[in-house]
Amino acid sequence: LTTDQAHALTSVQAAALSSASVVALTSAQAAVLTTGALAALTTSQISAMETVDLAALSTAQIAAVTSSQIGALTTAEAVALTTNQVHALSSGQAAALSSAALAAMSTAQVSVLTTAATAALKAAQVAALTSAQTAALTTDQVRALTSAQAAAIETVDLAALSTAQVVVLTTSDVAALIGAQIGALKSDQFAALSTDQMHVLSSTQLASLSTADVAVISNSKITALALNAIVGLTTAQVTNLTTAAVAALSTGQVNALLSSQVGAMTSAQFQALGSSQVAALKSSQVAALTTAEIDVLTTDEIAAISTAALPGLTTTDILSMTSTQAQAFTTAQFQALSTSQADAVLLAYLNS
């Protein structure tokens, strides 16, 4: 066929071409096929096209290719697409690519998918992306991901994201990540999360963090944690919080902590708490305090313990106090103590 003859092929004639005839097409002939003729080709004919012929198609021709035809592309044909052709793929066409074909594409090809095409990818396609392809996504593409797509990212691929990519994940995307995905984040990635992203983390997600991740939670980030999420931190994770992060906890967060979390704090961490935070402690939390934590209470902090929380103080706790600490109880507090607690306060005062 001459190029003029190839250009003159009707839809019916194009559909009637044998696979051998399609294979025999030259790049010049493929480039002049009308969009109607091209769209009429069967999926078998499309998959029989030479890669050089496919690469010769214009973006207008690519736009005319049906989703079914795109789905029939072999991995070799997908790899042969130019970046201009990939950029021209519609949402429907992108979603029609086989997972194998998409995974075979170069990082340069994947990075030029439009945001609409990126958002149209099925979860299985996102899961099929390689770490290199995931890392090649532009920040606009990452921002365009749906929560279902974010949830489909393999943990090894998630760890390949740059901090610039991580920070543009929507809060819906972050909330959709399972614990294993959150746990796969490297310390620099976790440290890059915004306060809005931190706020949507669940207790299950927090429990999945590595101790290294917990250690990089900054003052501003820890205050963003939701009250019903902070209880997810394990006692091992709590001990890895910096004293600055502990000192930044809101009174509401302190009050929400589990007794085991409060009891797990090191003396240095507990010492970092202020009077207002100590005042927020519940009786069950006070009961969980270790003698090491009791020992670092300042006189102001002892005076700040609420009368409702005082029943949590054991006589052992009180007897470990210094005379100065024992004198710090206010009149209202002393009146609220049980007889055994009051006796212990007097003994602490006399014995230290």
What's the β-strand tally?
Answer: 0
Q: Give the DSSP E fraction (strand runs of 2 or more residues).
A: under 5%
Mean pLDDT equals 95
Low-confidence stretches: none
Anisotropy-based shape:
rod-shaped
Through-space gap between termini: 106 Å
Fraction of residues in helices? 55-70%
Figure out the total of helices: 42
Class of secondary structure makeup: mainly alpha
The description of the largest β-sheet is:
none
Give me the Rg, rounded.
32 Å
Explain the overall architecture.
It is a single chain. The chain has 352 residues and is mainly α. Helix content is 66%, strand content 0%.
Describe this protein with a few key phrases:
352 residues, mainly alpha, 0% strand, rod-shaped
Short note summarizing the structure:
The chain has 352 residues and is mainly alpha-helical. It is built from 42 helices and no strands.
Describe the secondary structure blueprint for this structure.
Blueprint: H1 3-8, H2 11-16, H3 19-24, H4 27-31, H5 35-40, H6 43-48, H7 51-55, H8 59-64, H9 67-71, H10 75-80, H11 83-87, H12 91-96, H13 99-104, H14 107-110, H15 115-120, H16 123-128, H17 131-136, H18 139-144, H19 147-152, H20 155-158, H21 163-166, H22 171-176, H23 179-184, H24 187-192, H25 195-199, H26 203-207, H27 211-215, H28 219-222, H29 227-230, H30 235-238, H31 243-248, H32 251-256, H33 259-264, H34 267-271, H35 275-279, H36 283-287, H37 291-295, H38 299-304, H39 315-319, H40 323-326, H41 331-336, H42 339-351
